[in-house]
Here is the input.
Amino acid sequence: TTVYLNGDFLPAEQAKISPMDRGFLFGDGIYEVIPSYGGRFVGFTPHIDRMHSGLAQLSIDIKLNHDAWQQIANKLIADNSAELGSNLGVYFQVSRGTDTKRGHAFPTNVAPTVFGFAFAIPPEPIADKAKATTYTVVTGQDLRWQRCNIKSTSLLGNVLHYQQSQTQGAQEILLFDKDGNLTEGAAVNVFVVKNGIIATPPLSSRLLPGITRQVLLAILEQHSKLKVEQRDISEAEVLAADEIWLTSSSKEIAPVLRVNDQPVGNGQVGDIWLQAQQLFSAYKFDY
Ligand code: PLP
Here is the structure.
C-alpha cells in the first residue's frame, strides 16, 4: 500500500509519525473519509470544505488547497487500485503536528502532520429492497462533547457508543441529547419517515454535518417532490416511525429494520427508502 505523508508518497510500512505528535497524544486533529467508485468521488468538494472548516475551528493552518487535495487523492487511488480494487475510500488526517514536549497549549512554529491513505470499501449500495444492507440499532443517551460538528480524530465518545451497540447485539446506536432529541448515531446521521414525510435533525454542534446527509437533502430538494423537514425529533417519534435510515459515506442510505428489539414500521425495507436510494444512486456523482 502506498500512503501519503507530509508531501511524500511511500510504502505504508515506511511512513513514520513521532509519538510526540499531538494527533497521538491529544487526538488534536481533523480527519475526513471520501468514497470513490471507479475513480469517481462522491462529494469531494463538500468533504474538503468540511475538513477546512474543522481545521479553521481548531486554528490549524494548512497550505493545501482543493486542487492539491484532489491530486493527492487521485494518486492514492491510482497507486492502490491494482491491489485494493476500484471501490476505494480516501482517508485524510491533519494533526496540529509534532512538538518536542507534551503541553496542552498550542505549540508555535510546528508544521501540521498531513497523512492520507486509500482503503477498500464495499461496492456501491444498490437501490433494491432485496439487496439492501439493513441494520438493527439500539437507543441511548448521547454522552459525547458539545462540539460534535467538528470531525475530530478524538473519537473516544463515538467509539464507546459504537461498542455499546455491539455489546447489545446491534450494529449502531441512535443517540438522544438531554432534552430527548435525536442527534445522530456513533458513525452515521439519521433520517426518519412518517406518513411519507422525511425528517432529520437540523445541523447543530450536537451532530456531524454529514456529507451524505447534505447530498441527499440536495438531491431530494432538486430531483423529487418528497417532503423533507429538518427539525427536532423525539425518541417517541423515532420509535413510531414508518422508516428509519442511517446515512454515511460508506453506507449511503441504509434502512433500519429493528430498534431496541422492536420492528420499525412493518419490519420491511420501506418504499420511501427505495425512492431515496434510487435518486441518490442516480445523482450522487454530481456533488
Ligand atoms: N456522524 C458521525 C459521527 C460520523 O462519524 C459520520 C461519518 O462517518 C457521519 C455522521 C456521516 O458523515 P458522512 O456522510 O460525511 O460520511
Residues 66-84 form the longest helix (19 residues). The helical segments are 22-26, 44-57, 66-84, 156-167, 211-223, 235-239, 271-283. Residues 158, 184, 187-189, 208, 210-213, 247-249 surround pyridoxal-5'-phosphate (CB under 6 Å).
